[in-house]
Predict the 3D structure of the following.
Amino acid sequence: HMLTNQLESQRLYFTGRMNNIKRSNDDVVAKTKGELDEALKRHAECKAKVEVARDERDLHERKLAAMRKQTLEVGDKVQKLEEENKALQQERDQLKATILEHMRKQRDAQKQSDEYIKD
């Protein structure tokens, strides 16, 4: 009978220890699962933020490409306007020279006319 009591006592002791270990393991598993769930949640949030950032980057890159294209177009227009302006300045200078020449000839003719009338 004593042996039976001792065996029963050991069984109860080890059963209790196993239950404690199991509870402890269950607590660790639950805590770890909670931490994992939180980490997965943060990962998903970060992943979503990265996607938003990529979309914004792509949008900004498209806008930048459009602005570069506009800059090139404006540069071309400026160059054409500068060429036109140079041509107009040359034409103005030629017209001015022609007008001055006509005015000089007119003065000379007036001068000759005045001299002819005096004589």
Remarks:
- The chain has one helix and no strands.
- Residues 61 and 90 are 43 Å apart (CA to CA).
- The helical segments are 2-118.
- The two ends are 172 Å apart (CA to CA).
